[in-house]
Automatic annotation (TrEMBL):
This is Uncharacterized protein. It comes from Flavobacterium profundi.
Length: 290
C-alpha cells in the first residue's frame, strides 16, 4: 500500500514513541528487520530519530516492506497483557489510514489489512478552538495542585517566563515551555496518585504486562491516563495532544520536515492549554480516590 504524508507522520509517531519509546539503536534494529542495513554510530553522524524514521518510511512506502512494518509495529506478541492498548493504537491509526482506503484489523494474534469502507467520523461534541481560547482561567494557582514545593517554585518561574515570551512575541519559546511544564505537572500528579495512574487501562506497559516506571512514560501517556481517570476532560485532552505535537518540534529536523512555523495564535493556544489543564487538575482532584 502507498500512504499519504499525514498517515506516514502518524506511523512515524507510533514507531518512535507512542507504542513505545525507541532510541536510535532500537530504530536501526527495527528497520534492519525490514531489509535495511544500517549501523548506529554513537560517535555522531546519526540524524534525529524523526528524520531517520521519515527517511525509512518514505523509502518503503508503496512496497511490501511497508505492510511488514505495520504488522511488526502492531504484532500482538509485543502487547501481551495489554491488548486493549494495542486495539486503541490500531483504532487511532485507522482514522488516518481510512483516507488511504485501507484499514488494519486484528484477529486474535493476526494483523491483516482490508479495504476501508465509508469513513465514519466519531460522533463527539465538537470542541471549537475559538470557544476554547475565550474561556477564562483567572483563578488558577500552581500551589493548589499540591506538588512538591521545589517543583512548584520552578514552575512558577517558568510561568513568568512564558508571559514574558508572549509579550516578546516569541511563540516557539512559549510552546516549548508550555509543553515541558505540562509534562512536569502531570508527572507530579501521577507521583501523587500512583495507584490511580498505574491501574488505569491506558497506563503504558512493558512486554510482560507490567506498568512502566514514570520516567519511561511519554507526555501522550500522561495525558491519556489523566483523562481516563477523570481529572482531565475531553476538551483539554484534545488540545493537550496538539500541544504535545507542537512541543516535539523542539527538534530542528522535525520542524524542517513538517514546515512548522508557529505564530502568536499558536502560542496563545498552548498557553491556554496549560492554564486549562491546571484548572481541571485542581478542580477534579476530588474525583481521584486516594
Amino acid at each position: 500500500m502507498k500512504l499519504q504524508q499525514k498517515t506516514l507522520e502518524k506511523l512515524r509517531n507510533l514507531i518512535n514513541e507512542e507504542t513505545e519509546y525507541r532510541s536510535g539503536p532500537k530504530l536501526v534494529d527495527f528497520f534492519n528487520d525490514l531489509g535495511a542495513n544500517d549501523t548506529y554510530n554513537r560517535g555522531g553522524g546519526f540524524p534525529s530519530r524523526w528524520m531517520y524514521t521519515d527517511e525509512k518510511l518514505s523509502k518503503i512506502n508503496g512496497t511490501p516492506e511497508l505492510d511488514k512494518c505495520i504488522r511488526k509495529l502492531f504484532a500482538p506478541v509485543n502487547f501481551i497483557g495489554r491488548f486493549a492498548e494495542l486495539d486503541k493504537f490500531i483504532a487511532d491509526f485507522n482514522q488516518y489510514l481510512a483516507f488511504d482506503g485501507w484499514q488494519v484489523l486484528r484477529k486474535e494474534t493476526e494483523i491483516t489489512f482490508t479495504k476501508a469502507g465509508k469513513i465514519k467520523f466519531e460522533e463527539k461534541i465538537e470542541v471549537k478552538e475559538d470557544d476554547f481560547l475565550q474561556k477564562e482561567f483567572s483563578d488558577i494557582s500552581l500551589n493548589k495542585l499540591g506538588l512538591d514545593s521545589i517543583i512548584t517554585e520552578t514552575l512558577n518561574i517558568r510561568f513568568d517566563e512564558i508571559k514574558k515570551c508572549l509579550n516578546a512575541k516569541a511563540p516557539m519559546s512559549v510552546i516549548f515551555l508550555s509543553g515541558s511544564s505540562l509534562e512536569g505537572i502531570l508527572l507530579g500528579i501521577a507521583s501523587k496518585y500512583p495507584r490511580e495512574f498505574n491501574q488505569s487501562r491506558t497506563s503504558p506497559k512493558d512486554q510482560n504486562g507490567k506498568v512502566k516506571p514514570y520516567h519511561e512514560w511519554t507526555l501522550s501517556n500522561f495525558i491519556d491516563t489523566a483523562h481516563d481517570i477523570g481529572i482531565l476532560k475531553e476538551d483539554v485532552k484534545k488540545f493537550s495532544h496538539s500541544l504535545r505535537d507542537f512541543r516535539n518540534y523542539i527538534h530542528p529536523y522535525e520542524q524542517v520536515s513538517s514546515r512548522f512555523n508557529p505564530d502568536e495564535h499558536t502560542a496563545r493556544i498552548c498557553w491556554q492549554v496549560l492554564k486549562a489543564a491546571i484548572y481541571q487538575l485542581t478542580n477534579n482532584k476530588p474525583n481521584v480516590q486516594v
